[in-house]
Amino acid sequence: MITLTTPLSNKVIRELKAGDEVLINGVVYTARDAAHKRLVELMEQGKPLPIDVKGQIIYYVGPTPERPGKPIGSAGPTTSYRMDSYAPKLIKIGLKGMIGKGERGEKVVEAMKKYGAVYFATTGGAAALIARKIVSSKIVAYEELGAEAIRELVVKDFPAVVAQDSYGNNIYLTGKAQYKIA
């Protein structure tokens, strides 16, 4: 198990390999489709983003409302390919990690290789358990988007697996290959 603390450096990113199990600590931002669209529109307009993505991780999640005494509700990953048209632009300006479920497209993988980023997967069916690793949560942008607002999460020992590394290795492909009958 590898313990990571955000923000992530290029050195740390280049040391991670597909299949590595990690525990993430520090700040992680949330964002889904609508927030990604707005971030990229701001970039295209030459305007500043509401968050600094350099060295950071974005978790593709739309959490449920928090229960009394808890920082967040259920917080399981959403399917990542919906962010594929936006992710390369964010990676280019310094995003180092993304957390979600499902495989990433070719343009995202090429950006990860070129600029040094990784894609982490976490268990989709364990959303309530994952939420226990979130210490605090606050909305930092786009509150009107509800569950899709950008949140700043502080996480402690948040479990994930490096699904696709900065060299193009991919556990979704290597995993299948292990069980392929010749």
Proportion of residues in helical segments: 25-40%
- How much is the average pLDDT? 93
How are strands sequenced across the largest beta sheet?
2-3-4-5-7
What is the radius of gyration? 16 Å
Strand residues, percent = 25-35%
List the helices and strands and how they pair.
Elements: E1 2-5, H1 10-15, E2 21-30, H2 33-44, E3 57-59, H3 87-92, E4 97-100, H4 106-115, E5 118-121, H5 127-131, E6 134-141, E7 150-164, H6 171-178
Parallel strand pairs: 1-2, 2-3, 3-4, 4-5
Antiparallel strand pairs: 2-7, 5-7, 6-7
Kindly summarize this structure in a few lines.
With 182 residues, this protein is an alpha/beta fold.
Describe this structure in words.
The chain has helices spanning 10-15, 33-44, 87-92, 106-115, 127-131, 171-178; strands at 2-5, 21-30, 57-59, 97-100, 118-121, 134-141, 150-164. The protein has 182 residues and is of the alpha/beta class. The protein has one domain (2-178): Alpha-Beta Barrel (fumarase).
Distinctive features:
182 residues; alpha/beta; fumarase; five-stranded mixed barrel; 6 helices; 7 strands; 26% helix
